[in-house]
Amino acid sequence: MRVLGIDPGSETTGWGVVETEGRGLKLVEFGVIRASARESFPARLLKIFNGIEEIIARLRPDACSVEEAFYAANVKTALKLGQVRGVVLVAAERARLEVNEYSPRLVKQTVVGYGNAEKHQVQEMVRVLLSLSTVPEPHDAADALANAICHVHHAGSRDRILAAEARIKVASRTSNATRRRAPR
Question: Which residues are catalytic?
Answer without folding.
Answer: 7, 67, 140
